[in-house]
Design goal:
The protein is mostly helical and about 325 residues long. Helix content is about 85%, strand content about 0%. The protein has 12 helices and 4 strands. The strands form 2 sheets. A two-stranded antiparallel sheet has the order 1-4. Strands 2-3 form a two-stranded antiparallel sheet. Helix 3 packs antiparallel against helix 4 and helix 4 packs antiparallel against helix 10. The two termini are about 25 Å apart. The relative contact order is 0.25.
Length: about 325
């Protein structure tokens, strides 16, 4: 038990340091390429911080622990959306540019709704074509978002060429190979830290006799979402709120469409009845968060507190009702 607790602490240390390096490098890449930071958050950072979810869910599918694969994704998405965004808003209100994030936010909700629909269509198993559909939607989304990023880059370059006086002050930015190296290093530390943290936490939870669904929704979901948590908190602390929000929404899209798409093609994914309730909560809470964004264009401390309290209450209900 002592060794596992030590691994858990080491995992946290690696996560914090890795997230710090990764955010620095990713923001540097965005500035170097003149790409909006929200785009970087939705793509590179989102996929990098979701690496632990990929490892856990794909491994679970290969070993036949299919319920764990889905509960990990659903639990991670709820932790990302409700707890992390809520906590970031409590620390520092998040100003939201609705036009930049609305379509991606809606896609994360549609992805969760599609996962719920698979329960009604496939019964206890997500059909293989459902997983393939997830991957097709994800591929289309990535194509469109890269196209959007290239358009934004060209527009900015054209504007600066016509109006050089609008160019931002020269800031010393490390060369691209160095930034890429640090991004890879940071991502590697995040993955290693997430793995160690999950291994340690899972051992403790299993020793206490907790069910597979509960482990997936809580310990493993929170453990694999630690990269998103640390990365978003670091970004918010530095005033990169749109970067943090893009990271969370991008991670949620990646988790359902890519991870469950891959895992479902490896082995049919078992969809327990209890997970239907959890997925429904994810859809409803996503709609509420989107309502906050549309009505006030800001996620303030009140909204953030409501989201954090709701998440803690939900976890308490899930754990004590098993």
């Amino acid at each position: 038990m002592i060794i596992q607790i030590g691994l858990l602490i080491l995992g946290f240390v690696l996560l914090i340091k890795g997230a710090d390096i990764f955010v620095d490098a990713s923001v540097g890449i965005a500035e170097k390429l003149h790409v909006p930071k929200v785009i970087i958050g939705l793509t590179i950072v989102a996929m990098g911080t979701s690496a632990p979810e990929v490892v856990i869910s794909v491994t679970a599918a290969m070993r036949g622990n299919n319920a764990l694969a889905i509960s990990n994704v659903v639990g991670s998405n709820m932790f990302n959306l409700i707890f992390i965004i809520g906590l970031c808003a409590v620390i520092k209100p998040i100003m939201v540019k609705v036009g930049e994030i609305a379509k991606d936010f809606w896609l994360s909700i549609v992805a969760a709704a599609l996962l719920l629909a698979m329960k009604f269509i496939g019964g206890d198993i997500i059909p293989w074509w459902g997983s393939l559909m997830f991957l097709v939607i994800f591929g289309t989304y990535m194509f469109l978002i890269i196209k959007k990023a290239l358009k934004a880059k060209h527009e900015e370059e054209a504007h600066l060429a016509a109006h050089p006086e609008d160019a931002p002050p020269e800031v010393k930015i490390r060369k691209m190979p160095v930034l890429a190296l640090f991004a890879v290093l940071g991502c590697a530390l995040i993955v290693a830290g997430g793995h160690l943290a999950v291994e340690g936490a899972t051992y403790v939870a299993t020793a206490l006799g907790v069910s597979e669904r509960i482990i997936g929704l809580t310990i493993i979901a929170m453990g694999t979402s630690l990269p998103e948590l640390i990365t978003s908190l670091v970004a918010c602390k530095r005033g990169e709120n749109e970067f943090a929000l893009g990271n969370i929404i991008g991670s949620n899209i990646f988790n359902i469409l890519f991870i469950l798409g891959i895992a479902g093609l490896i082995a049919p994914l078992e969809f327990e009845l209890a997970l239907m309730f959890d997925t429904s909560v994810l859809v409803v809470s996503s709609l509420v968060a989107l309502f906050f964004v549309y009505t006030r264009k800001t996620l303030g401390r009140i909204e953030g507190s409501v989201m954090v309290i709701f998440y803690v209450s939900y976890i308490a209900f899930v754990v004590f009702s098993q």
